[in-house]
Each structure stands twice: as structure tokens, then as C-alpha cells.
Amino acid sequence: MAFVTGRLGRPLRSSLLQVVQLHLSRTMGASQEDFENAMNQVKLLKKDPGNEVKLKLYALYKQATEGPCSIPKPGVFDFVNKAKWDAWNALGSLPKETARQNYVDLVSSLSSPSESSSHVEPGTDQKTPGSEDVVVTSEDGITKIMFNRPAQKNAITTQMYREIILALEAASKDNSTITVITGNGDYYSSGNDLTNFTKIPPGGIEEVAKSGAVLLREFVDCFIDFPKPLIAVVNGPAVGIPVTLLGLFDAVYASDRATFHTPFSHLGQTAEGCSSYTFPKIMGPAKATEMLIFGKKLTAREACAQGLVTEVFPESTFQKEVWARLKAYAKLPPNAMKISKELIRSNEKEKLHAINAEECTILQGRWLSDECMNAIVNFLSRKAKL
Ligand SMILES: CCCCCCCCCCC/C=C/C(=O)SCCNC(=O)CCNC(=O)[C@H](O)C(C)(C)COP(=O)(O)OP(=O)(O)OC[C@H]1O[C@@H](n2cnc3c(N)ncnc32)[C@H](O)[C@@H]1OP(=O)(O)O
Fold it and tell me: Which residues fall in a compositionally biased region of kind Low complexity (predicted)?
């Protein structure tokens, strides 16, 4: 079973694609022939060239047709237009002719011969056939839910949150005995996809924050209520929400390559996933403070020493050893395991739901803060990484 979801930054990409294409269609009568051909070729590209390239195309197009950027800088909340403005403005006083030539060169570097035969509808969301951002499989009594955006370090899009909710709901009722969450590629997950904040609906940023809080609460509630043993197979570094959620798992197995990082203060944000309660309980308030407030990154061995991780395995044997163990656990009587989990969890459930609700309300406010907005803008404009 597999769930196929959206690609990274589709809203931003779509908007940018639309903008580029709108400009292309407006200038079909431009005088420079190569430039016109290049503009046509952009419309025929089979593969989404990515945000960075689309921004370059946009900027070169504007420079070639209008000259240096002289429009006012968009506001800090206007992510898409600000990114475009930055790209155009960065071209400084590049002559129109050079910009035109650079545009032609860039398009020619993107096109393969086969790309002139098919047409991409302007503004359509382009899904790579067979792409799957969350992959769900079931085998040997184990349902495996895998983050599958390795090129984006398994950053979690809003669509992926929804797909994981559905996958957990399905796993709670299927024939499997245990459920595993893991990541494909070198990362377990880099956390919330920061481009989730860039699709601003008519209700404005407040609406984004409100619906984000509703989604987050529902997402975390699924982990609180999940009835079967839930295991994290942490194959690599984890940042943000995939780390905080670990406090709600029943076991956490980590590669010695994994790291655990919750840089919420750096991001102008606060703890979620019930970690404001589970982390102090698991590791004591002092160690929880270092992680949740000061953003200290733990190695797998440190996280194990703090009780967040059950066991650490050498990367070279990680997959083999962990899956062999999980297959053995999956053969244990399922009802006994469920009842034991219920015993362990039941006393805490009400408390955890209340904590989750509180954390989401606080985060909703944080997402509207300058501290948070600046951190996101800095990441999106590639000024800051963790
Ligand atoms: C209100 C909004 C609605 C939201 C809906 C629900 C909200 C629930 C939210 C719950 C709260 C969650 C909080 C968190 O999870 S906080 C943690 C957020 N994560 C980060 O801040 C990590 C940011 N990423 C990085 O710092 C680096 O990418 C990283 C250190 C992880 C890796 O660095 P490295 O140099 O090795 O690799 P790259 O940076 O080149 O990354 C490769 C590509 O992947 C993209 N990427 C990686 N992480 C993210 C991310 N979190 N969001 C978006 N994109 C990400 C990166 O941009 C690169 O893409 P390009 O190749 O296109 O440049």
C-alpha cells in the first residue's frame, strides 16, 4: 500500500511557474528570436526545474525585458514576491542583452531533446509519475510508514501530515502487529517543511497558522491514541517534530549516524508533539531544557543515555539488526501487546491530549511572530541553516 502526496514547495513552485508562464505568454511577440524560442521551451519542460531555477528564469526574464529591478521590496510576509524580488534585484545592473543571453543559455541547459514533444499545462501541479512522499508497506506482521522525500531530507509537507494520519488510522486496524516509522535516504526527517508557511490563502497568515494548529493537533493526537506498538527506526539525523514525537513511541532504534535536534528557539517556535511533557519526564527537566529551549543537538548515543532512544546500532549493521529484531517482535501475541500498551498509556492519555492542545495553541501564536517569520525567511532565502 502506498500513499502518494505532493512534492516539496509545490505551492511556491506552482506560483512561480504561473508567474514565469504568465510573463512568457505576455511577451510572445518579443523581437529577439532566440529569446522567444527559449521562452517557448520553458513551457515544454517535462520536469519541474525546481524553485531556484525558476527564480533565476524569472529574474533573467524581468531583467531582459524591463531592465534592473526598481519596484519596491515586498513585505517580509509576502514570501513568494519577496523571493522573486530578491532574485531580480540580485542581477543589479546586468545589461538587458546579457540577461537575454543568460536566459537562453539557462533554458538550453534544462532542455533535453525529448522535452520538445510534450506540453505542460500552465500552472498545473506536476506530480512525477510514481512519486510517493509517504510510502506505506505491510509485511511480516509489520506496517512500515516511510518518509520518502530523500532529496529534501524528508521534510514533512502539509499533505504528508495528512497522509501519515491516514496511514496510522489504517495501520491501527490492519492485520499487522506492530507499526514502524522510518525515513528513506540519509535523513530520518528534517521536520516541518518550512515552505508549508508560504502558501498564504485569502484569510492571510492568520488562517495558515490556525489551520496549521488544527492539523498539528490532529496529527499528534494520532500518535497519542495509536493502539499497537509503535517503533521509530531512526536511520539518520532528525530535526524538529520527528524528534519530539519520539516521546510518544514505544521504542526508538537509532543508527549511530542519527542526531536529534529540536532548535525551536532558533526558529522562533516552541515545543510540540507533547515534548514539553514527555522530554522532562524521560530525561529530567535540565536535559530537556538543553534540547527544547537551547536547541542542543544530541548524538544517537547521547539520546540513548538520556532515555529518548532505546538502542543504538552501528550504521553498517543497522538495517539488518533492527529488522531482524522487529520481525521477531511482530510474532508476539498481538492482543497481549495491545493490552500492555493500553495499560502503560491509559493513565497518561488525557494529560497528553491536554498538553497537545496547549502546545498547538501556543505554536499558532508563535507562527505569527516576527521571530518565527524571520527564521523562515532566512531559511527560504538560504541565509540560514541549522
Ligand atoms: C503554519 C504552517 C502550516 C504547517 C502545517 C502543520 C504544521 C506542523 C508543524 C509542527 C512544528 C514543527 C516544527 C519543526 O519541525 S521545526 C524543524 C524545521 N526544520 C528545519 O528547520 C530544518 C531546515 N533544514 C536545514 O536546516 C537543512 O536543510 C538541514 C540541516 C536539515 C540539511 O542541510 P544540508 O546542507 O545537508 O542539506 P540542504 O539544506 O541542502 O537540504 C537539501 C534540500 O532539502 C531542503 N530541505 C531540507 N529541510 C527542509 C525543511 N525542513 N523544509 C523545507 N526544505 C527543506 C533544502 O531546502 C534543500 O532543498 P533544495 O535542494 O531545493 O535547495
Answer: 109-121
